[in-house]
UniProtKB/TrEMBL annotation:
Domain CoA carboxyltransferase C-terminal: start-end pairs: 266-506
Domain of life: Bacteria
Molecular function as annotated in GO: acetyl-CoA carboxylase activity; propionyl-CoA carboxylase activity; transferase activity
Record lineage: Bacteria, Pseudomonadati, Bacteroidota, Bacteroidia, Bacteroidales
Gene3D superfamilies in the cross-refs: 2-enoyl-CoA Hydratase, Chain A, domain 1
UniProtKB keywords: Ligase, Transferase
Name of protein: Propionyl-CoA carboxylase beta chain
One Pfam family from the record: Carboxyl_trans
Protein's organism: Paludibacter propionicigenes (strain DSM 17365 / JCM 13257 / WB4)
Amino acid sequence: MENQQKVKNLIDLRVQAKLGGGEKRIASQHAKGKFTARERLEMLLDEGSFEELDMFVTHRCNNFGLEKEKYLGDGVVTGHGTIDGRTVYVFAQDFTVFGGSLSETMALKICKVMDMAMKMGCPMIGINDSGGARIQEGVTSLAGYAEIFQRNIMASGVIPQISAIFGPCAGGAVYSPALTDFVLMTEDNSYMFVTGPKVVKSVTGEDISTEDLGGADIHSRKSGVSHFKAENEEEGILLIRKLLSYLPSNNLEEAPLFENTDPIVRLDDKLNSIVPDNPNMPYDMKDIIHGIVDNDEFLEVHQHYARNIIVGFARFNGAPTGIVANQPNFLAGVLDCDASRKAARFVRFCDAFNIPVLTLVDVPGFLPGSGQEYAGIISHGAKLMFAYGEATVPKVTVTIRKSYGGAHDVMSCKQLRGDFNYAWPTAEIAVMGAAGAIEVLEGRSISKITDPEEKAAFVSEKVNEYKDKFANPYQAASYGYIDDIIEPRNTRFRVIRAFQALETKKVVNPPKKHNNIPL
Ligand code: HXC
């Protein structure tokens, strides 16, 4: 063959590879409102930056007539490219080839880019759209999954790992995304479950749709498996790009510093009156967050799950920062099992990747009741405490209003190595709320008073006495547990200065194989 012909052959083969499972299947993918693997990567990566690897890999299976059906690339597109100029490694399963099902060779391709990502210290992004283990291959496919899982585990806390679910993700396949840092699903065509509706029906008799069992809404709102829910693939891809802008490429780097256009000393007068006089009245913690961060930009993680706590990324003077904040607007901002787990995982992510944490506190306590006790609120609450206590990144806490009981300790208090702990003058830092406290302290005296008016007057007097003593930040400040009581409208620049003063922080935990966080 002449050399020119060899070049032409290569070009033809590349064209063939780019067609995946063929035009008909591509059309069927588009008809479902889905993009192909290559289209997705093109949208995700900076224009023209994608370098594909292993385009000529084909499967090695001879069962069920598979030896006659081979596609270049074998059901997954892998390689590297850049996002905002920074290198990332990627894979996108190609549903047009055997339904994106995972073969031995597909696993090898995915593992290769995962290994490269680890070696180079770059984020790993996987786009999932797959019918699961390639049934014709049997155990080699299962082994392939396990190879991927092992790499997910080793990469955890070393490079950011992000999973987009743009199609089916079922059976044991769900565990790779679950092992990554962030899972993103789209409103249509995206589902995850360990067993599908048919198996559920045959085993338990439960009749349930795909959507209700493992759609984006369920995993974003109920299970918390998904951190982000996008309306469609385009929005999902933009979200991934945005998320990455807050993250370093690996655990030895700092997150990228942005040029800040928002004045550091930007006083926000409305914050002085945002907390209602009535302590039982809610307000929206997000108004405070938006009031203090750079340019009003906040990327909320787990927006629909455990809404009594807010977690997400923002910037202060250009520096990416994780924010954890109780939300009085939902269940009064109480800490329950889900909120504790949500915040704990977020704090651990930030700590693993050198992202400072700002904690905004307005928490009436842990949610009481048998439901929570049986669900293990003790262990889940301990997770959050553990996460804060082990974190060595800069930690700034601002107590806005309530900070009661065990929840006070958990929410990044001084003794859990909070670096700067500030409070607004509206803060109430105490063992419990006034009404509950007086019931415990004066229960016997109250029960002895028979006249209702007299009883009410006595209770009110005691409640006021308690409030005067504890419903304020001054007792905590008198012990140095609160470093300063700040005017609400000054919060932005006080927080920025605090983080600036913490830039050189170095704290190292005692050497150990690993800790034993209460799971
Ligand atoms: C081989 C598969 C496949 C699979 C789909 N295909 N899944 N081939 N192994 N697992 C092929 C189909 O034969 C079909 O080929 C093409 O992909 C598209 O599939 P359709 O069924 O036509 O598409 P659709 O109607 O959209 O349905 C998608 C689907 C369905 C819901 C994913 O294909 C399905 O239920 N697949 C099986 C899912 C499953 O049970 N997987 C195993 C899970 S257990 P043609 O040639 O017609 O285009 C598992 C264990 C992992 O994954 C363990 C890890 C520890």
